[in-house]
Amino acid sequence: MTQEHAAAPVAPPRPPRSGPLAWMRANLFSTWYNALLTLLVLWVAAQALPGVIAWALRDAVWIADDAAACRQAGGACWAFIAEKARFILFGTYPYQQHWRPAVAMLAVIAMLLASADRRLWGRPLLLVWGLGLGVAGALMFGGFAGLDYVPTARWGGLPLTLALAVVGLAVAFPFSILLALGRTGDLPVVKAICVVYIEAVRGVPLISILFMASVMFPLFLPQGVTVDKLLRAQVGLILFAAAYLAEVVRGGLQAIPKGQYEAAAALGLSYWQRTRLIILPQALGLVIPPLVNTFIGFFKDTSLVIIIGLMDLLSTAKTALTDPAWRGFYKEAYLFVAAIYFTFCFALSRYSMHLERTFSQGRRR
Predict the structure, then answer these.
(1) pLDDT > 70: what percent of the chain?
(2) Nearest to residue 299, comparing CAs of 244, 217, 358?
(3) Where does the ABC transmembrane type-1 domain start and stop, copy by copy (predicted)?
(4) Phi, then psi, of 206 in degrees rounded to 5
(5) What is the pLDDT of residues 210-263, one digit of tens each?
(6) Among residues 184, 173, 170, which one has the least CA distance to residue 284?
(7) What is the pLDDT of residue 103?
(8) In 3-state terms, the chain is what percent helix, strand and coil (to 5)?
(9) Which neighbouring-strand residues pair with 311?
């Protein structure tokens, strides 16, 4: 009997389930309460969807000379977006010079897309970023080759939001790595300075830092010395983002097994060599999700610069609503701005998922 049982054929492993039905079963109907919630959401969507479609598409006004046609139609007034799109995107930047922030913005987006390709990572990409940011800044400022000088007080809209977010994160990230290394290092004085800085910055809201940079900091400058408001806000955002990113990086450093440190030291590498070549790549690969979460939060927090008088994307949309001829179309304005924020944040989150899968391949069993 024992020999017959041992010789019985072994069934092949069941292939992994895939496809839309498998995804729906795993994510929407995995339990009875998930199924109930899914059916409830579908019922609410079925009740609301016809009205939303009628408002957004069937009764919407896409082209109009004034708001009277929109109010008469009763649907969405996308003509308001068409009329105010340039102001929302570029703020009070000179109307005839809008091509300059548009080109600068496209250059930054192109560099972001190029940075998503891992094959391009390296020193040439850093050179491209330095050159690209220099060209974008030159286009925004002007004052050469026949381009009129435009002060930062006239900047606004999406280029200002991108400048605050991209430059802020690009400068804050290496700063945060140094803070994290200092906090996890063995030098007591450096460690104490890093701890005090991180905890002090994380203990106050971003609004307070922006207020200090805009109102309090000029009071400590010598008479006659001024620092541009946008630069002060940018420095405040960098200091704020660096403190939060440092804690994320520190979490990755602490997750590295001690054997990795000992193996790197056994190879005879210096501190900076084993940190750059062995420790940091693993630590950053472990904390990609919280890093991207911080990036997305920082990108959205740039809208707080309105409290110091800078006109970011959300602020220009609010200002466009104050036009007496087009007053009242709040939903259209906020949906337009939300679509732009969603595009950037969703693309960033999807890319982080791709990076997480790529870097986790070496840890899979």
Answers:
(1) 94
(2) 244
(3) 158-352
(4) -60, -35
(5) 988 888 888 888 888 888 889 999 999 999 999 999 999 999 999 988 888 888
(6) 173
(7) 95
(8) 75, 0, 20
(9) 156
